[in-house]
Amino acid sequence: MLKKTAIKLFGGEDPESVLAKRIKIFVLIGIVLVVLNKLTLSRIGPLPNFEMIIPTLVVIGSFSLYCGGTKFWRGLTRYFGVVALVGVFLVDLCFWGFHPIYAFTWSGFIICWLLGLRKKLSMFGKFGSLLYHATLRAAVAILVFDIFTAFGWWMLTSPALTFSALSAVFLAQVPFTLYHFSSLIFVPPLVGLAKGLAKVPVQVPAAVGVRAGAMRREST
């Protein structure tokens, strides 16, 4: 019963179904990582802004993911970032309540996910190339996120919305952004996981030469 349910949810045993099954698991892992990060690293991490939400959103958003023909999984894969961030919203609201700055952090996360969607990468590409592009996108996303949220902080807290006040906020943000780049450490494991899951064994029939076949018949 459990096996039938699992096959129905994730797919069968042929290579195409196995690949689709693994990608489904990859997407679910991404959602779990984003939500768990919000509960742990983002609050008790060793460094300010040390988190894996942005790397996960960017890396998984960057890949072209095939989840089979099921409408539910196609939708979940397509809107992975939205589903993952709904978990972030709920954790924020349930544990810490609403704060005005969330309007910028939540929308900032969405911007990061959209940056990952700009150009799709193939899970079958070379690891070095995938790692380079994924790391670059994640770094850009972190920079954009920090600039955007610093601007939001200026809008919400500055007594005078002046250019000098905005400059002071951006200057104070620099150390936090440098710490934030430490989050790029999560990119290689995520890319490696994607590459590992894409290695699906495929049975290929072996060709037998005519002469070899004739020799076998003569020996019998």
Oligomeric state of the chains?
single chain
- As for the number of domains, it is 1
Could you tell me the strand content as a percent range?
under 5%
Helix content: over 70%
What is the rounded Rg?
Answer: 23 Å
- List the total number of helices: 11
How many strands, which pairing sense, and closed or not: the largest β-sheet? none
Question: Can you give the mean pLDDT?
Answer: 84
Broad structural category? mainly alpha
Low-confidence stretches: none
Order of helices and strands: HHHHHHHHHHH
The tally of beta strands, per DSSP, is 0
Note the overall shape. elongated
Task: Quote the distance from N terminus to C terminus.
Answer: 48 Å
Task: Give your account of this protein's structure.
- The chain has 220 residues and is an all-alpha fold.
- It has one domain.
- Helix content is 73%, strand content 0%.
- The chain contains 11 helices and no strands.
- The chain has helices at residues 2-10, 15-39, 41-44, 53-62, 71-78, 80-96, 102-117, 127-157, 163-180, 187-198, 210-219.
- Helix 2 (15-39) runs antiparallel to helix 10 (187-198) and helix 8 runs antiparallel to helix 9 (163-180).
- It is elongated, with a radius of gyration of 23 Å.
